[in-house]
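STRUCTURE REQUEST FORM
Protein name: GTPase IMAP family member 2-like
Source organism: Notothenia coriiceps
Requested output: structure tokens
Priority: standard
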Amino acid sequence: MKKSAYVSDLRIAIFGKNPNEKTTLSNFITAKRDGSLPRTPKQCVHAEGEWRKKPFTILKTADVFSLPLERVRLEIKKCVVQCSPGPNVLLLLVNPSDFTEQDRQQIKFFMNFFGPDAFKYAMVIITQNCGLGNPSVNQLIQDCKQRQHIMDWDEDDFPEYDHQELMEKMENIVDENRGQYLVYTEDTGPMGAPECTKPALNLVLFGRHGGWKTSASNALLGERKFGPHVESSECVKRQGEVCGRRVTLVELPALSGKPQEARKKEALESISLCDP
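Status: completed
Returned output:
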């Protein structure tokens, strides 16, 4: 459901599976380069900024892809409250290399809580510049009326013109919807909750050698990726669908030689990424 509003400020909600990418996009939009926005996957994070002398609000949502139904309802309600009176731009972060049809169905499901016109306010943010050969990604872009923005996440910094282009695309969404915005609705329509034929499987990979862990992840997810391995100092979350079962893999960084508190912190992070 949507209501009329005669304000032009941006109220942006970011949805996606990868908390680090959501943080990067949030900091990019708010022009923060220090990574100061917390990387907390289990709760909403609110920030504010200014664009062309107009204030805007941005909300990095929790990982609604891995939450049970009632938690999804709660997070959508939080989204509306923290973007009061309601968000007028929804950014859907998508990595084509691991985006599945089940992911698209989950997006359709939680978008229903915003009402039947939710996709009129949505834009797909492509987080990996590897082409659009993924049919589920292409269909999601069609759902969003061809609104998309591709960002090269391999670059150390994003150019200023990229920031301006993204902000103008979001302003266009607000203009096209004549200042209207989205609110929470209890009626999810005939779609109902997405069905999962098999229970989800959450795995945590331990080990010193990052390349071996990545190779194991690729084998378990049925992916074939080539090129040099890049060591990560943080937990890396990957998801996919294997034989009708949703699989979440978390690669822990090497814990050998780290103090006990650091090992405990990494273990807790891996648990949060495997919610519940």
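Reviewer notes: The chain has two domains: 2-182, 201-273. The first helix runs from residue 19 to 29.
Form closed.
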